Amino acid sequence: MEEPVFVEPARLAIGMFVVLDLSWLEHPFSFNSFVIRSEDELATLRALGLEKIRIDPSRGTGITVPAAVEKPPALLAAVPEAAPEAAPAAVTRSDQELRIEHNRVLRSSIANAEKQAAIAVRSVRQSTRQFLVEPGQAIEQANALITGIAESLLGNSEVMVHLLGDKGSDDEVYHHSLNVAVLALILGKAMELDSEALQSVGVAAVFHDVGMAELPSRVRLQSENLTQAEEALLRKHCELGAGMALHSGLSKAVACAILQHHEHLDGSGYPNRLSGEQIGRAARIIAIVNHYDHLCNPAKAAAVTPYEALSTMFARNRSWFDAAMLTKLVHVLGVYPPGSIVQLSSGDTAMVISVNSARPLRPMLLVYDALIPKAEAIILDLEQAPQISISKALRAGSLPPPVNEYLSPRKRVAYFFGDGACADSDKES
């Protein structure tokens, strides 16, 4: 392992890659390591009051190490020209305080979303279990849940979609139902559905798999490879669920969405191989978000990242779905939805944790930095760091163990929402 290289601040130069051995709170830059790009950044680095600053000659862009650098001459190899790396702009101390406050507000919003999601999961669990014995009470509880979520969504012009943490719960089916309901409501709002239509979509999403309760556990849980006969039986859950919905007093619109949520626009779906406008709007919404959630959280197959899920839906399954709705889902979740692992233009690795539906291309990221404890990891808002961009998506399985442990990619990708404006509140204060 090569020894670290240190240089006096006065000998720093534009083009050097610096590594600040400081807490993120002890300097005003977006990252602890970056290529120096301007005289302002040089001035800010020199004003930190450090005797020496570490540099990495292998990551500098077309530079040589100055003579004063404490490094043996044998290691002064020519550095191949690399693609320019974006550098964080130097900011003032007051800007740094705003950045810290912005992080606090975002962490608080995520924590609140976690709490609200936990309450919602309990409500979905109770509604689903009661549906078989006390359908009236179950429907009342589901309606109350969806009304609350829909009112919150309609009451905010901007919605922040948050990635939730893994809780190690065994309630997979209820998390799936809630995830589908939340995404269906977010997509429904983006499609400008009115409150009545949103209510039907949300309730249908909560109960879209209720017919599974009538199937044998082996088929319902899909814990092993199913036989052809068992696959055919599994597909019966749509008709079973629609019948249960009508019998319990749910509206015809809700029952229709439950019946059709596995139909495809090209006629390749089930149970009735409907196509195009034969499939109701609510069913088309649920079909998209249900498939997305199954790709991210499959029962048997290996999960893909949210970025890969959207890419697969566009590349392989586009004919199945309403094109306008699929495009709108990308608009609200972004090209890199929460849960995606990405490489930044700075070379850093990060995980997308939140997306503002009004600015989906500038998400919030949890950034890997070996110098910062995991509990204090940087949350970078790309909206506030215009010099940084996402270069590409990464597969979670390709991450080095330390990075994987630090970012902790979710085994279950689950979402909830918050007020998108709250993350901007510190900008206005």
Automatic annotation (TrEMBL):
Record protein name field: Cyclic di-GMP phosphodiesterase response regulator RpfG
Gene assigned in the entry: rpfG_6
Domain HD-GYP, residue spans: 151-345
Top EC class of this enzyme: hydrolase
Matching Gene3D superfamilies: Hypothetical protein af1432 (1.10.3210.10)
Enzyme Commission number(s): 3.1.4.52
CDD domains in alphabetical order: HDc
Superkingdom of origin: Bacteria
Record organism: Candidatus Accumulibacter appositus
Pfam hit, one: HD_5
SUPFAM superfamilies reported for this sequence: HD-domain/PDEase-like (SSF109604)
MF (Gene Ontology): cyclic-guanylate-specific phosphodiesterase activity
Source taxonomy: Bacteria, Pseudomonadati, Pseudomonadota, Betaproteobacteria, Candidatus Accumulibacter
Keywords: Hydrolase
